[in-house]
Amino acid sequence: MVLPRRDAPPADLAAAIRDLKRERDAVIIAHYYQDGEIQDAADFVGDSLQMARFGAGTKARTIVVCGVHFMAETAKILAMDRTVLLPDTAAGCSLADSAPEAEFRAFVAAHPGHQVVTYVNSTAAVKAMSDVCCTSSNAIDVVRSIPREVPVIFGPDRFLGDWVERQAGRPLVLWRGSCEVHEMFSAEAMQRLRQDNPGCITLVHPECPASIIALADVVGSTKKLLEAVQAGPERGTWLVATEPGIIHQMQRARPHGTFIPAPAAVRGGPQGACTSCNTCPHMKRNTLEKLWSCLATGGPAISLDAALADRARLPIERMLKIG
Ligand code: 13P
Ligand code: SF4
């Protein structure tokens, strides 16, 4: 039994994290948007779908999720018998917040006979109202798995939904949520960068509006964008329209490559004037020190009502079966 400890942070946080992981029989799962030092401390780094799969498959007694709250909640739903830690429980998500439980319930009730597909960037309560979940990796396959004659609600991301609608070639009833990071990229600034860097390859996450997706050479989940870099030229130049934390892995895959984080527009300000508004403030709440602290103290841990978890698990499991 590991006793809670609240010592001062050690000088070598990375080494202390390795020791505590062994003591607690813990694994650390990190999203690509985490700071590089957190990604380096993790046992597994991936996109939302890979994180869910890894969480479902691990036998470790403690799962530390370095990401945002819905990711830790998904891990808990799939492993209710395990301890799931999130270094900072205030790490939320504007997309998950954009679908409050009561409003989403009313939306579903207003569309009888529809199948409900929800992006995993949603609360357990919203997942529990869904027929099947999806991530940006598998959203098209998930929608295609539903017979064409069955109408589909898609939420909470309207931009992902809009892209899936075009790719799958069928109309969807969209909930109108969005990601505060991906909706802010500046098409004008990106066009300028493309002109200034001829031959650069533009990578775009499908949480972006259609005007940004229209500039893309590759559209896809964080995993797909990273794979494009891994398969691309050694000395390529890449314009990256997603959270720039992923550049850590891209730079590792192509040390001689040049990676340009796409700039965000400033709300109400001149286009393309901000190069730091493209970072996710929620993801960045986690730090190496908070990661050490949660392993040292065993908290904060995610707790979830068992009946709610049972209802939310079904659509996640359906998604995991689809691919
Ligand atoms: P993926 O990792 O599934 O591409 O999702 C990106 C994201 O915004 C996670 O919050
Ligand atoms: Fe949520 Fe957007 Fe941050 Fe992803 S990048 S966690 S969708 S706010």
CATH superfamily membership of the largest domain: NadA-like
**What ranges have pLDDT less than 50 throughout 5 or more consecutive residues?**
none
Rg from alpha-carbon coordinates: 20 Å
Shape: globular
Largest sheet: 4 strands, parallel
Lateral strand order in the biggest sheet: 2-1-3-4
User: How far do the termini sit from each other?
Assistant: 38 Å
**Oligomeric state of the chains present here:** single chain
Strand fraction: 5-15%
Helix content: 40-55%
Task: State the helix count.
Answer: 15
Secondary-structure element order, N to C: HEHEHEHEHHEHEHEHEHEHEHEHEHH
In the CATH hierarchy, the third-tier topology of the largest domain is known as Rossmann fold
- Structure summary, number of beta strands: 12
> Architecture of the largest domain in CATH?
3-Layer(aba) Sandwich
Q: List all distinct small molecules, including ions and cofactors, that are bound in this structure.
A: 1,3-dihydroxyacetonephosphate, iron/sulfur cluster
* The top level CATH class name of the largest domain: Alpha Beta
